[in-house]
Amino acid sequence: MLTPQIAATRVAQGAAFLDRVHPGWAEAIDVHTLAMRTCRRCMLGQLYGDYSDGAETFGWQPSACTFLDLPQVQLGFTLADGDLLDAPCWPLEHIVDCVWRTLTDAWIDAIAERRCAVADGEVQDLVPV
Fold first, then answer.
1. Crossing angle, helix 4-21 and helix 95-119, to 10 degrees?
2. Distance CA 122, CA 74 (A)
3. The pLDDT of residue 127
4. How far apart are CA 59 and CA 104, in angstroms?
5. C-alpha 47: how far from its chain's center?
6. Dist. CA 16–CA 2, nearest whole Å
7. pTM score, whole prediction
8. What residue spans define the domains of the chain?
9. First to last CA, the chain
10. DSSP label at residue 80
């Protein structure tokens, strides 16, 4: 199951990745429309036009089956199939929305952190060396 803590860990890795490959990414994202479940409004969709285009930019194969060890999962750009197991949402039709919302919320938090750091002039503290 994808918990908020697991989502935050993956997203922190994804944010550090984007700091290296797409500087200024946090300012380019519209958090009001960010929806990790959709291909055009997800992180890669907003930065590269579509989830698949973003994945292909980095040599990742977009797949209907996503496994935990795939980079796009580890970096918080999509869910692993197992992330939907044992989700605390109910009824059943809400489980998928709930888990995707957990990932979206983690990205919104990471974006807010980046934007606050930029506003405070602390962006160098967030960019890994």
1. 50
2. 26
3. 43
4. 23
5. 12
6. 20
7. 0.86
8. 4-126
9. 32
10. -
